[in-house]
Amino acid sequence: MTRSRLTPEREAEIYEAVLDLLREVGYDALTMDAVATRTRSSKATLYRQWGSKAELVVKAVRHDKPVQAGEIDTGTLHGDFHAMLERSDDCRMEKDCALMRGLAQAIHTNPDLHQALREHLVAPEITGLDVVLRRAVDRGEIRPDNPALGYVMHMMIGAFVARELIEDRIPDRAFLADYLDAVVLPALSA
Fold first, then answer.
1. Contact 163/170 with Cβ under 8 angstroms?
2. What is the pLDDT of residues 106-117, one digit of tens each?
3. What's the predicted TM-score (pTM) here?
C-alpha cells in the first residue's frame, strides 16, 4: 500500500529513510525506487514533491540540521563555537561522516547535486558562520582584517574530514573541541 499525504511527520520519515540509504549505499546507488520502497511511497509522489533525487537528498540533509549557526549567541566566540559543537554527539558525528562519504564522490560527478548542496546546505551554513564571526568582530574579539576569517569553514570541514583520513578515527566532540581551542580560535586570535 502506498501513502500519498505528506504531513510533516511523513516528510521527516522520508528524509530519514533517504539519509539511511545514503549512509548505506552512497548517492550513486540511491534510487527513487529504493526510497519509495523503504517508505511505502510512490515514485510519482516523490518526484511530484521534490522534482529530482538531488533535490530530495539536499532537502533531507537540510532537514537533519534544523539549528542554524547564526541562531547561536552566547556572548563570546568561544562560547558560540562550543555551543555549535554541543548540538551534536559522537553517534551523530559518526552518522555525519558516513553521510559525507556517501555524498563526497557524487558531488564531483553530479553537477545538479553539487549545485543543490551549495545552495541549500553550504550557503546557509556559511551565512550562519558569518553571522557568528561578524558578532565576534563587533565585540572586538577578532580584528576585522584577520586573514583567517575567510578560512574558518575550511578549517572546520578539514578537521572533520582529515581525522578519519589521517588517524582512521571518526571525529568526536572531544577531538573537535580540542581542535577549536588549539587551531581555530588561535588563528582568529580570539
1. yes
2. 888 888 888 877
3. 0.74
